[in-house]
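Help! Submission page says 'invalid entity' but I think these are all valid:
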Amino acid sequence: MGMNGVLRPGHAQIRVLDLEEGIHHYGKVLGLLETGRDKQGRVYFKAWDERDHNSVVLRQADRAGLDHFAFKVANKATLEKLDSDLRAYGVPTERIPAGEMLETGERVRFQIPSGHIFELYAEKKDVGNGMPYVNPEAWVPAAEHGIAPIRMDHCLLYGPDIEKVQKLLEEVLGFYVTEHVVLEDGKTDLAIFLSTSIKAHDIAFVRHPEPGKLHHISFLLDSWEKVLRAADLMSMARVSIDIGPTRHGITRGETIYAFDPSGNRFETFAGGYQTYPDCQPIKWTIDQVGPAIFYHDRKLNEAFLSVVT
Amino acid sequence: MGMNGVLRPGHAQIRVLDLEEGIHHYGKVLGLLETGRDKQGRVYFKAWDERDHNSVVLRQADRAGLDHFAFKVANKATLEKLDSDLRAYGVPTERIPAGEMLETGERVRFQIPSGHIFELYAEKKDVGNGMPYVNPEAWVPAAEHGIAPIRMDHCLLYGPDIEKVQKLLEEVLGFYVTEHVVLEDGKTDLAIFLSTSIKAHDIAFVRHPEPGKLHHISFLLDSWEKVLRAADLMSMARVSIDIGPTRHGITRGETIYAFDPSGNRFETFAGGYQTYPDCQPIKWTIDQVGPAIFYHDRKLNEAFLSVVT
Amino acid sequence: MGMNGVLRPGHAQIRVLDLEEGIHHYGKVLGLLETGRDKQGRVYFKAWDERDHNSVVLRQADRAGLDHFAFKVANKATLEKLDSDLRAYGVPTERIPAGEMLETGERVRFQIPSGHIFELYAEKKDVGNGMPYVNPEAWVPAAEHGIAPIRMDHCLLYGPDIEKVQKLLEEVLGFYVTEHVVLEDGKTDLAIFLSTSIKAHDIAFVRHPEPGKLHHISFLLDSWEKVLRAADLMSMARVSIDIGPTRHGITRGETIYAFDPSGNRFETFAGGYQTYPDCQPIKWTIDQVGPAIFYHDRKLNEAFLSVVT
Amino acid sequence: MGMNGVLRPGHAQIRVLDLEEGIHHYGKVLGLLETGRDKQGRVYFKAWDERDHNSVVLRQADRAGLDHFAFKVANKATLEKLDSDLRAYGVPTERIPAGEMLETGERVRFQIPSGHIFELYAEKKDVGNGMPYVNPEAWVPAAEHGIAPIRMDHCLLYGPDIEKVQKLLEEVLGFYVTEHVVLEDGKTDLAIFLSTSIKAHDIAFVRHPEPGKLHHISFLLDSWEKVLRAADLMSMARVSIDIGPTRHGITRGETIYAFDPSGNRFETFAGGYQTYPDCQPIKWTIDQVGPAIFYHDRKLNEAFLSVVT
């Protein structure tokens, strides 16, 4: 929750090449709960401990990637204000009517300079986390069905003009930079990590010539032991692991990168520090990008650099 | 960080009966880093991963307890606005000049209806977490000196009129309730847990006839394994453990309660869920206060109920 | 596996007051796998990662407790030799024919000086751990059904004449003492912990006037995080927890003690050191029996001392 | 401890190219405790929780590798018997007098068919684990100095004629095979893992044309969280990591492979199952050697296959 009223990453609409494979992956292997299918054929999922109706939406398409990434805002007044602020800033916005997505209110859609489609919305139906709001238990069996992340947490996007993205997110939406990687010139950022809360990142960008590309969607786990469990389950399901379990230097998170059947990278991670807008951003120089990304190996692997969808 | 600009619990000034014992406990056993002593004889500490100069201040006194609990706000303009808002709400405020506490800016002091002294401030010197802001490592040896919490996280206070406290914190300071325990009448809260961020609690209150009492100051650990390590170190140091390791029903945190040499209770904990202001509060009925507090034993112990300072 | 050919605790036959409650507890809550029922009405279970047909056998009876505790030995020749050695030592033995217990070979039964019935056997059918012996995965879903211990690990028995028990176990069966608690006289043992392997204990005894009593049967978990999970599941199932999660001073294991519906105490634990017969035993003096048993609280609780079945 | 009286891997004498670098690595980074230096210039180390005087001995030499690997046996009578058994089996033995290694009794030295030098000994001075044998604490600060393994655990050796090695270890020394990897012919083993205890391996061999080569010496950690800590410390010390943190399919252990400054590979690991001689060995077919070795990646890396010292 930022001071401008942007609460959190709310949902990601992901393109998959084969819907059945996608449903199997996100539902059985990753262990998200399917919450609905719409007339367009989209399939909706939520993580077990999320209370809103959906956080991942799969759409079958000819090429993999991310349709849009949406943030929930505090309420309708905030939605109106941010829409107005965006337009005042020079960003055209579009209204997607309530109900276009299942159990989701009106959305404000706009394109950011890196070419990605963002959305804001204020309403999504509270379907609960499987526990009552009175005298709940600590967790439910769904917390162990598949990898079973707690929530869809953030994404890393590839595209151009990330300094313009940063300015927009800071000045209009109230994000702040937590860490960044600087190129050889000592000035230009290769990568930026931004928060609208006390999370080390709610979203991140890497400079890339092609616009609108997805590096990964990330899902939060409870602990480093759950990261091991996730890696085990990926092996059992023959999921292609990119790297991990390992630690990031940036955010200090404990992580696995892997690929869904369509080639979209996803992350399951735990840990990472909490931060605040008064905290000085952490800078990584390009010669240390190895440990910045993969703290143990201290070097990037080929897939990390080349594969985006 | 709340939408009203209250960032986080910033520091707690704790009264100890014997300063040397207190310094040993908070410095060597708990493993906070001593950052200074002032002319009044107060001793300042910070947790290793905190960047601001201090979060725990010890003052020798005839009786144990909490002098005041302070929140850092986003900036000086926020401090002025909140001071003005408090006075407009009918809460008298006092200004404590910059420098009265080491490396700390001007503070706005006020009493809340439960009898506790709260403070707001915008400035405290960034002394870092022992790692550079350029190309840091993942952690430093101080992360293993003593129990070594990551930060001072929250406190639980006992006093009267907690419904008035809740109203003040919600309406002026921007907190929101995450969980509460309701008495037999189904209306009156025995306990309230409030957040000014996405933490399950930044502060909590239990209804109690005597004003201004401290139940515990809480310190965050990285993991359940660090909770075990903390319990081991407490045993080695002959710290009196109240309860734990165990889990709370409320917040789901993994916890130990124990006592400093002056009888002030402190908590070391890990885990707990993250939440947002759009999340419906969780309610506990009084017949389930056992599992609400101690999820495994499902009943309260005598010390938990009776000992406050 | 001891040098005399005693491999490990093989099975415990436990008396329960209500068979259905017992089946629910050991099968659904503890998460053992039911492997059969015999004509006598006994119900057989194994832990998921055990390969032999059974390790826990429930028998309905009027009072709770332990019928007998059995050790698997290396082979039939070892069984014959140990039987002969026992008789030469002056211990009468009895042969229980193969098949009296499901999938279990001939057993040699004898009473030890503390009044407990012990058995040795060489054969129990290998039913596997749910994974093939060629190219297995790392674990199976059964590893997460209920508390799901890895194996039945050891027991703690209460009775008289434990110095005679120790002598018998050392001289005939090849056990060795790893730790012991000495009474005020500095000579007499209150408790002895013995191993027939590199485990810190395969069995333990506490001096007690009444013969043949059971303190607890213990089940091994993978990690301290699984101990937390076990405590959570016990709370969800309203299992009565005696103490824990905590650590033992003796063996250093991480533990929970709790009760089955018939009042038989069971333990779920992880960790503990490994040891060898050349290692000097660790001695605890009676004034330190608190941290010896419960390392964090450093004192015994009432139930630990008084409840045996 | 095997039924033939071979207790455990006792010490490994390792050749390093630069003694000071080796001392820094094994002492400061790995965190073994230096226990002495002898007239030959060898430097002795033990892991914090080992009680015997040494388990790793460094010798400066022109090429890296393993001088010899030694097992402690139950007592002097066992040493004499095993020496006699070895000679009866056709293996020439040599006696190394007591005192040739610091605090170590007489050793029986012999070469195994893979070209490696093995030793047996019955005596090594008990210097303790830093805790008293009366009323100890759960651990000592040395448990957190550097990576701080619990013990030197096993080694993996490369050489020819591993079926002859297996036969010798089984028939004379009492080892048993726990797992093996079979080549395309379905008969010839590529790799064998053997235990003389209930550990999933006390030693392992991979078939390799060049005799007497070392793949890695392995050190045991307490938990998967300690494996993460080890990887972090390796990164901080710029240790070259081969692979990990990850899991092995064989033994299920959680592991990191890395290199000492001389290029000798070492492993830090946790977990893995316990087994017994009555357990059917697990077989891996050569097409599944990927998950057998690295369970998550499901393929071997280049370094694993090619680098031995």
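Support: the input was valid. A stray whitespace character was the problem, and the output above is from the cleaned input. The first strand of chain B starts at residue 6 and ends at 16.
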